[in-house]
Design goal:
Order of helices and strands: HHH
Protein name: Group-specific protein
Distance between the termini: 54 Å
Number of strands: 0
Shape: elongated
Keywords: Membrane, Transmembrane, Transmembrane helix
Length: 70
Amino acid sequence: MNKLEKAIIYLFSFIFFPIGLIIWIVSWFNQSQPFKRVGRTALYVAAASFCIHIIIGILNFVLYANIKLH
């Protein structure tokens, strides 16, 4: 797997975090060690993206609720 393919996988894992989970599941059943590393990294990127989405959602809710109260 070349660097461009890895970059595309990581980018899509960040933007659409379920893709990172799917790639990790697929790589879990694969025998290739480099692909397993890519899958694990895609899972980490997807988890980070999910956490960032949650934090932004909470901040958005809190900020919007504070504006509505005043």
